[in-house]
Design a protein that fits this description.
Number of domains: 2
Bound molecules: zinc ion
CATH topology of the largest domain: TIM Barrel
Strand order of the largest sheet: 1-2-3-4-7-8-9-10
Helix content: 40-55%
CATH architecture of the largest domain: Alpha-Beta Barrel
Number of helices: 17
Order of helices and strands: EHEHHEEHEEHEHEHEHEHHHHHHHHH
Largest sheet: 8 strands, parallel, barrel
Strand content: 5-15%
Length: 423
């Protein structure tokens, strides 16, 4: 099972948008761009929504059948570890093994010594084709990186082998994620991490490091664009080198988590992919739920009323909703409009406030666009989950406006700038 060069993680929290998401890939295919969908949903999201992993597989299969999609597609058990992988074993064929928790955990001196003895190539002047300036990594530095990441690599190996034996030979795509941590991993660190993962004999197809800069939920990238581009290019070179040196599958690629709405880095990614010929996996999740809200509002009437009600509830619970997301949101409370004000908004006003357009779009970003409100709604899906049938019934009633927005968002604002040859 070999993941294609370009793939898009399509999170679908409430499980109603698989067809609309697949339509975006179909639009790409009609335009000559091959992007395969990977439906991702984490244990955490299942817990919040009250859904079962098998429901993602069902929705994906049904969408593929209805749209007669001939390409590949995958179902990703996102951010799993030994404690929660069991429910995903039969219905997923893509596993994102999250080892961020194990980063920095104590590892004995002998393990570090052993790693260094096996990897003399990592010490000193390390020349990576595609990176102008060779890395100069002292033995102490390699030792430090190894001490920080060896436990995580070992954990990834353990989880990989567990899945492999539980699936009894049934093939799957393996990703290792380290993005949900405080500190970004530099390209030299990535090289050491890949060496450690190779020692674990994981046939890795994607790896999700933490990049520098802020990847806030549902809004644009915040950080130094030039530095991001350099780091991304260096990471691609490190991966190509690791494929050669350590025998990883030749399609090994970067996975960009919290990748939706990061408009200002898409051109840099596009350039890097074209220049290097590399592939990428970009994960999106909450952006589709935000399009559901926009679609509800566009439908007017009960749809608009429910969108406002969700905002009002989220506003009331802002502290509780924000707590688990502190590292990945930046909501300024005093920039959130009062509930009474939002209650008086027209459809147009509500949509203009939530819809996120690239700043350099030919249409200028609406003066009403409010990233604080948008982030609050992003983390407010718990509110909709609690509405249960009321929410699902309106999703069905407002299907036209919702699916139109879901498809357009993924195709026009994500796939096109990322993968289009003209972009
Ligand atoms: Zn992630």
């Amino acid at each position: 099972m070999k993941l294609e060069k370009y793939s898009l993680g399509v999170g679908d929290r409430f499980g109603h948008q698989a067809k609309a998401q697949l339509s975006a890939c179909r639009r790409a295919s009609e335009a000559g761009i091959e992007v395969v969908p990977v439906w991702n949903k984490s244990h955490r999201e299942h817990m919040t929504i009250g859904s079962e992993p098998a429901s993602v597989r069902r929705a994906a299969d049904e969408a593929v059948k209805t749209l007669e999609w001939q390409g590949s597609y995958y179902v990703d058990a996102d951010h799993i570890h030994l404690g929660n992988v069991d429910g995903f074993l039969t219905c997923s064929d893509y596993f994102t093994i999250d080892v961020a928790e194990a980063i920095g955990k104590e590892i004995g001196r002998p393990a570090v010594d052993n790693f260094l003895a096996h990897h003399p190539e990592l010490v000193g002047r390390v020349v990576i084709p595609g990176i102008e300036e060779p890395f100069d990594i002292s033995a102490d530095r390699v030792r430090e990186i190894a001490a920080n990441y060896l436990r995580a690599a070992g954990e990834a190996g353990k989880v990989y082998r567990y899945i492999q034996s539980a699936r009894d030979g049934s093939p799957f795509v393996a990703e290792v994620s380290m993005d949900e941590t405080d500190r970004p991993q530099t390209p030299p660190e990535l090289l050491v991490i890949l060496a450690a993962l190779a020692d674990e004999k994981i046939p890795l197809q994607t790896i999700a490091p933490k990049f520098s800069g802020r990847f806030n939920k549902g809004v644009d990238y915040v950080g130094d664009l030039e530095q991001f581009e350099k780091e991304f290019n260096d990471d691609l070179a490190v991966i190509a080198c690791a494929v050669d040196r350590y025998g990883f599958p030749d399609n090994l690629k970067l996975s960009v988590h919290s990748g939706s709405d990061k408009f200002s880095i898409y051109r840099a990614i596009n350039r890097a992919l074209k220049r290097s010929g590399a592939g990428v996996h970009l994960k999106t999740a909450g952006t589709t739920w935000l399009e559901e809200i926009i679609g509800l509002a566009e439908a007017g009437g009960a749809g608009l009323a429910l969108a406002k009600e969700i905002y009002a509830e989220a506003f009331a619970q802002v502290d509780a909703l924000s707590a688990p997301y502190a590292a990945v949101i930046a909501i300024e409370r005093d920039r959130l409009p009062a509930v009474a004000e939002v209650a008086g908004w027209s459809t147009e006003r509500f949509v203009d406030t939530v819809r996120h357009l690239p700043a350099d779009d030919r249409r200028p970003r609406s003066a009403h666009f409010n990233p604080h409100l948008r982030q609050l709604l992003h983390i407010g899906y718990k509110i909709a989950a609690k509405l249960d049938r009321r929410y699902y019934d309106l999703l069905i009633a407002c299907e036209e406006s919702i699916s139109r927005n879901v498809t357009e968002n993924l195709w026009v604002r994500h796939i096109k700038p990322l993968f289009s040859p003209e972009s």
